[in-house]
Automatic annotation (TrEMBL):
It is found in: Cell membrane. GO terms for cellular component: plasma membrane. PANTHER family: HIGH-AFFINITY BRANCHED-CHAIN AMINO ACID TRANSPORT SYSTEM PERMEASE (PTHR30482), HIGH-AFFINITY BRANCHED-CHAIN AMINO ACID TRANSPORT SYSTEM PERMEASE PROTEIN LIVM (PTHR30482:SF20). Keywords: Cell membrane, Membrane, Transmembrane, Transmembrane helix. CDD domains: TM_PBP1_LivM_like. Its main location: membrane. It is a multi-pass membrane protein. Pfam families: BPD_transp_2. This is Branched-chain amino acid ABC transporter permease.
Length: 334
């Protein structure tokens, strides 16, 4: 006979109820997200669009760090490459902006795979330092090829205009476009993690030696984790170019990579909601703290990271999950 108290056992009915609540919450969140651009001022719509852009980039970083266990301090590099790939195609070759998205994703996927190969024997701090070095070298490299990238002045583009048949304003169109692309990226990541690939990445994260004994091909999945992560960052970079309509090397310093890593740690590594919460953190914390002092964003970032790691080691998503389980436990007691 089991010694587990009856009150602590989960039943199929309670599991089904929890799933219903999750689907209801997802439907409510989707409805609110779709209605947001029609209820908010254009600047707030722009801010929410940038939250979605950062969430796409953090989706890739979450796949690499949270699920594959590979630390990267150079994720902003792929974000920048996706941005420049879209900007160069739009500015130099007059490519329609929607076609720059798959091209940016393909370019960053290949480059991410190429980066994954020489880092196969690195892990932990050494891997972080190598990826950070790549991010540091990117800015002078972009300035070096000024004839293509615009050099220090960058490239100024025209904002994409919505199709006439939509009847939407520009900010509404870009927001809904970013929302659709972010949802598609999230669906792809969810499908990957629920497949054999996801199980292999989790085995790699938990114990590389044990994963190799179980038949997981470490080299293959490490390089693919870098490639997929870079691909999502490239998609975010392309959408970022559409929204900002400007790219410059100084916008993609190593601080961006550090900020993205901080965002996914605060949002919740390995969680479903972590990238979205991290995107909001990356977008709104500097905005609200900039008015206090020029150095305030860095200070606030540090303080919030320490606070989250102390109060919620699994990030804001883990804190929300614990609050939900506590509320469900109280409800069952009643």
């Amino acid at each position: 006979m089991s010694s587990t108290p009856l009150s602590l056992k989960s039943s199929p009915a309670s599991g089904g109820l929890a799933r219903h609540w999750r689907w209801a919450a997802l439907a409510l969140l989707t409805a609110a997200a779709c209605a947001a651009p029609f209820q908010l001022a254009p600047f707030r719509v722009f801010q929410l669009t940038m939250v979605l852009v950062y969430a796409m980039a953090l989706l890739g970083l979450n796949l690499l760090v949270g699920h594959a266990g590979q630390i990267s301090l150079g994720h902003g590099c792929f974000f920048a490459l996706g941005s420049y790939a879209a900007a160069i195609m739009m500015d130099r070759w007059d490519v329609p902006y929607l076609l720059t998205l798959p091209a940016a994703m393909a370019v960053t996927f290949v480059l991410g795979f190429a980066l994954g190969v020489p880092t196969l024997r690195l892990r932990g701090l050494y891997l972080a330092l190598v990826t950070m070095t790549i991010a540091i070298f990117l800015v002078p490299l972009l300035k070096r090829f000024g004839s293509l990238t615009g050099g220090s002045m960058g490239l100024t583009l025209a904002h994409p205009e919505p199709p006439a048949w939509t009847g939407l304003a520009r900010d509404q169109w870009l927001y809904l476009l970013a929302l659709a692309i972010a949802a598609a990226c999230g669906l792809v990541a969810w499908s990957l993690l629920r497949s054999r690939v996801g199980r292999a990445l989790h085995a790699l994260r938990d114990n590389e030696s044990a994963a190799e004994v179980m038949g997981v091909r470490l080299a293959r999945y490490k390089t693919l984790a870098f490639a997929w992560s870079a691909m999502f960052a490239g998609a975010a970079g392309a959408v970022n170019t559409w929204v900002i309509a400007f790219v410059s090397p100084d916008s993609f310093t190593v601080n961006l990579s550090i900020m993205l890593l901080a965002g996914i740690v605060v949002g919740g590594l390995g969680s479903t909601a972590g990238p979205l919460l991290g995107g909001a953190f990356v977008m709104f914390v500097p905005t609200f703290s900039q008015g206090l002092n020029e150095a305030a964003p860095n200070v606030v970032f540090g303080v919030l990271i320490i606070a989250v790691m102390y109060l919620a080691p699994t990030g804001l998503a883990g804190l929300a999950g614990r609050a939900g389980r506590f509320a469900a436990h109280i409800q069952r007691k009643k």
